[in-house]
Amino acid sequence: MNPWIAIGALAVMGVGIPLGMMAVSAILRPSVPEQGKSAIYESGEIPTGTTRIRFNIQYYMVALLFVIFDIETVLIFPWTVIYRSALESGVGLGKVLFPMLLFIGILTMPLVWAWRNGAVEWVKSPRATSRKVEGES
Amino acid sequence: MSLPSVTATLLQSGGALPEWTALAPTLALALTALALLLVDSISPETKNNALLAGTTAVGSFVSLAFSGWYLAAGTGQSGTGGEIVLYGEALVVDGMYLFFSAIFASVAAMVAIASYDYLAGKEYQGEFYALTMLAATGMTLMASANSLASAFVALELASLPSYALVAFLKKNKGSVEAGLKYFLIGALSSAIFVFGISLVYAVTGSLLFSDVAEALGETELVGVAGVGVLMIAGGFAFKTASVPFHFWAPEAYEGAPAPISGFLSSASKAAGFAVAFRVFVEAFSLSAIPEGINWVILFQILAVVTMTLGNFAAATQDTVKRMLAYSSIGQAGYVLIGLAALAGGASSQNGDVMGAAMAHLFVYGFMNTGAFLFIALTEHWGIGRTFEDFNGLASKAPMACAAMALFMFSLAGLPVGGGFFSKYFLFANAVFAGFWWLAALGAINSALSLFYYSRVVKAMWIEDATSEFEIRSKPVGLYAGIMIAAVGTFLLLPAFGPIIETAQTAASALFGA
Amino acid sequence: MAAFDYAPVIVLLPFLSFLVAIGTAIFARGKNVLPKGGALPGIVAMAGALLLSIWMFVTVEAQGAYDQTLYTWASGPGEGTFTLTFGVLVDQLSAMMLVIVTLVSLLVHVFSLGYMNDEDETGLPRYYAGLGLFSASMLGFVVADNLLMAFMFFELVGLCSWLLIGFWFREPGPPSAAKKAFLVTRFGDYFFLIGVVAVFATFGTSQFSPIGGMEAFPVLAEEALTGSAEGINTFGFDAATWFNIVGLLVLGGVVGKSAQFPLHTWLPDAMEGPTPVSALIHAATMVAAGVFLVARMYGFYALIPTTLAIIAFIGGFTALFAATMGVVKREIKQVLAYSTISQYGYMMLALGGGGYVAATFHLMTHAFFKALLFLGAGSVIIAMHHNENMWDMGGLKERMPVTYYTFLSGSLALAGIFPFAGFWSKDEVLYETLVHGLGGSPLLLAAYAMGLLAVFFTGFYTFRMVLLTFHGEPRSETARNPHGVRWNVKGPLVVLGVLAATAGFANLVPVEKLTGANVDFLHDWLYHGPETLNGEHYSTLLHDVAGYTAADFSVLISAAVSLGMALAGVGLAWMLYNDPSPEEHTAKLGAVKDLWYHNYYQDEFQVWLAETGGLGIARGSDKFDQGVVDGVVNGVSSVSLFSGSRVKRVQTGVVSNYAALLTLGVVVLMVALGLYGGWFL
Amino acid sequence: MVPAQWYLLLAAAVFCIGVFGVLTRSNALMFLMSVELMLNAANINFVAFSLQWGNVTGQTFGLFTMAIAAAEVAIGIGIILVLYRNFRDTDVTSATTMRW
């Protein structure tokens, strides 16, 4: 059997279900047009401006810190996959565990550095002392 | 060194030291980088420039000492059992790695010493040195990469800190613009590079050089492999600032802090060549690769276009730093002869040509770094950037100007510094290998280069000062850096014999001869 | 060998006086630091050099010759490379020359006290510096033990002549005369330089005699011609032919320095220099250098009869040619100048004619009597307040007797009247040429004939000069009341006057023939040189290799003929000019007078030659240089700069363009390599 | 199993889209995103051919690529930030003080 049939069926289902739901609800619900209904929902706030607003640059630091942990995870993942089987096949603990400890250790160092250099401090006003806040990497 | 000594056999292959110690040149640089980060973590506000620069310089010298020791002791060389392969064949230590490590470490040391003055009073000093060391670590890894994966990672490890370093002067428009351009072209190039790797992987199913070479010999997907090889060559062309991947270089070298310009144009370029030499000789070896993938022609085109474009553009520059930037492109063209003047089969000339190119890179590391450090000195003094601004400088600072004249003439290939022999050997070996036209083009370009190099000397020594300027101080660090480079450049004239011998032995080992 | 250790000092002493004088001239300008304007250091140095030279002479007599390499300034590694050295060679020839040069130079220094100091000239330190360097260069040339070193000092001599002839550089004449002297001799030296290179290329050495591990090129050449040559590169020529070429190239320098036809034109002009300098140039140093060089490497020239014949012919022709021009000159120094050219012609004649000893002998006697004549002329010039025209003189005999009698002694020597020095030497020159000519070289006979005829003219112009200057009635106010001269002028004149009368006794060949007494001292002296550098060796070579044979001919007949010719010339002069108020008889010569007066139009001819030929070539070269060479260079550079300025426009500064060009580049390369490698099939 | 050439074509298409973005977008962030697209095209190849060849080299390398891409972006955003501070714009074509 052609393996593409499953993918095709998945695609049909994926597109069909939302379209079907929208169609069903459009048929069932009464139509009462009102301005408030077409407004953007902002938890009760009155929306201002466009969607293209600037975020505070300090989010950038948070994002970067996230990247560190993200990459750490990505690179640790294959190691975790083989960890047990490697141990079972007789590779010593030192040879399996130590490199990863070294890796994490090296990664910790920049984290400490970033911490010490104020990457996680939230400065109230970006114009006030902005020293060492948005240092790269 | 072809002389195996008793201690040589006892180092790594004999069991006196564990095998991983063969990577000591790299480890020294990496540990220095971490130490610098540690210092900066402990006291983030530190402006203890002497400590930071000193640590960096010491780390570089330690790395240099390891390289020298291993080279002398024969680590990873044919005399003591051949190359040392580490970490699942991802890295390899041989004569070529040690030779290039010596280049990177010496350039890094000079840059660190000179930066002591250049960075005085600036912020983020710790980061500066740490990034420099990280980049140097990446470069040594590039020289030791034995798989496309480690080559890519090492290349990025060298590149990413470089981007930040070029844009280091955050308030300087030129520096930021240079960093942006370097980064964007670099990102594009590395994307092309990694796509090339993926194509080669698609064809061969492996990233290890030896396996790639083996699989390429049997493949039928010549087209895919060819495109992959071309794209990988593109990645190296970016690192070495070869046409058409050179566009970042003039701006990056001009805008970057001058010590970084020297670092990038000497060490980073050498690193690009180091990995290119190894990849193209081992993974895409001429004896195994399909007929259709003729990368020698590719490098011939690149060499000719690069040296011509670099020299012609350099001849018409107004600012000295940008002239040096373009001339550095031209110099890359000469070194490309090391890949372009290769012949198929097991020609013994191949090792000689490539060795000559390596020796040129070695000498170039001193003379070009020295030239950029001189620019750093003028920037430190705050005199202008154009040739006219250099008028009459020799009367104010004769020592530094004498050193600069030495660099310029040596770069042009006059017999005042090692540049004479390295260029001579490069062209001569190209002629011996049968590529006389490459050598002839190189010689013509050298003649042209004499024109613009001598403009600097003329301005400094012959012209009268057009504007009044005061030299406020004679910074010790910058002077020391320049003098180390000058002494190195000069001493390489009489001491060129061992260098070319080592380089050619290392290159020949690569060719398996 | 203690004595010879001081040989370099002979050269260094005058050089030291040069340094002292030049140092004074530079650092103490205008201040009278040195007494006598620097003359005293020069005199002391030359006196010391003279004493040392005499010591050398005596030591050579006692111990034989000395040859020592002092300094090797360039040496190649291993076989087939050249070793360039400075060395000292003191043998019979150079020891004799050392004495002559130092003696004449010393006397010239002393005389300069009268000629320069007493006349209140300015720039005296510069003058004495020049004299010192001049003497040092000549002495260095004399003791040189290889051709390259000889060439270097030869050039230094030329430089010094330029400095000294142009001493009065603020006047119009001297600088141009100096320039002419320098350029004309340089023209000859150019060939000499090529000759030196040719000697090196041919033999790999330029030593005059074998020393240490180095061979001598005359010896090598001899071996080449006698059949056992090794390692000699004759560039595809027959060995004899090639040696002739090399010999002629070196001869170029000789002809220039010794003022032989056709490069003699600089010498009369050089009279613009101070008279003591003229004495030094003509008697002992510069002009003598050329002849000395041929004598020095006579072992080489004796191998090549063709070149010898050319030398003899040039010499004979120059002797006659210059003598005729001397006949009509009005200035006393001009007459002497042409007589110098003529006399050096005799020496060349002797060398070419196989008379090595004769040439050396004449070189020696001529050094004395010509120095004497020039110094005497200098004395006259002082007396005449620097008026040199003989027609304004007359009757000086009574007013300056010392000058007169010494000058007369020199004149008799120059004219070759028995028993003055010139008689003996000139007679031997002519005799040697004659016997070798009769022995089978008709060309030598022609040269001999010219030389013999010149004897007549020599006698004539010499005594015309003497009679016009010293005899008759004074023809001008200054001649009636001449400026007096002091001891420092008279002293050297007396010394040289005695020598001019007696120097001939050094080699009394005719007397020996007559009486059998062994009185040819110079002959014996020169025959006892080093193995390859003595007269006996040379005569063997001449006989065996060059094929010169001496016919049996009486020396007395030859001497009688030449003496008769001389006396005829003197007699004619006496007839024409021994008159209280002599007339110019030159009009009787008709067109010949103009020809002689204008020096056979040689200057004009050479200028014409230079202007038509030389200028044409120069213009052509200039065109080629400006048009083709510069054009190509400028073209390349402007094309480079232009294309550079275009190429760099690619760098637009916009990073998006870079990305586009980069992508384009990759695509182009991909398509090119793909089509080439067939990736798309 | 899907034939290999389709992966190659898909990757090439993604790569070309990335190149197109690089060439046409002047906003630095868009430039960066396009480069990411190109890197991901390579990742497609790696993962696909990892499966094809039956080894995990490609997959691992894909992880490396992602890590490096992240680091690249981190640096890139920093540079874009200082670019904005100096030129008041994130347009890559605005920084043209150096040329020729």
Summary of the model, kept short:
The complex is a heterotetramer of chains A (137), B (513), C (681) and D (100). Chain B has helices at residues 6-10, 24-42, 49-73, 95-118, 125-144, 148-166, 173-204, 209-218, 222-240, 248-255, 258-283, 295-315, 320-340, 348-381, 393-396, 398-412, 418-432, 436-461, 476-491, 496-510, and strands at 84-86, 91-93.
Task: Give an overview in words.
The complex is a heterotetramer of chains A (about 140), B (about 525), C (about 675) and D (about 100). In chain A, helix 3 runs antiparallel to helix 4. Chain A contains four helices and no strands. Chain A is flat. With about 140 residues, chain A is mainly alpha-helical. Chain A has a domain of about 70 residues. Chain B has 20 helices and two strands. In chain B, strands 1-2 form a two-stranded antiparallel sheet. In chain B, strand 1 and strand 2 form a beta hairpin. Chain C has about 675 residues and is mainly alpha-helical. In chain C, strands 1-2 form a two-stranded antiparallel ribbon. In chain C, a hairpin with a 7-residue loop joins strand 1 and strand 2. Chains B and D meet through helix 6, helix 7 and helix 10 of B and helix 1, helix 2 and helix 3 of D.
The helix-strand sequence of chain B is: HHHEEHHHHHHHHHHHHHHHHH
Stretches of chain B where pLDDT is under 50 for at least 5 consecutive residues are 1-9
Percentage of residues in DSSP E strands of chain B: under 5%
Tell me the span between the first and last alpha carbons of chain B. 15 Å
Largest sheet of chain D, described in full? Answer: none
Radius of gyration of chain D over all CA atoms, rounded:
17 Å
Mean pLDDT of chain B: 88
Oligomer: heterotetramer
Number of helices of chain D: 3
State the secondary-structure class of chain D. Answer: mainly alpha
Main sheet: strands, sense, barrel of chain B: 2 strands, antiparallel
Low-confidence stretches of chain D: none
Number of strand segments of chain B: 2
Q: For the largest beta sheet of chain B, what order do the strands appear in spatially?
A: 1-2
Sheet/helix structural class of chain B = mainly alpha
Membrane topology (chain C): Multi-pass membrane protein
Transmembrane segments (chain C): 6-27, 39-58, 93-115, 127-144, 150-169, 190-208, 239-256, 277-295, 301-323, 335-357, 363-383, 404-425, 445-470, 491-509, 553-577, 658-679
Organism (chain C): Halobium salinum
Keywords (chain C): Membrane, Transmembrane, Transmembrane helix
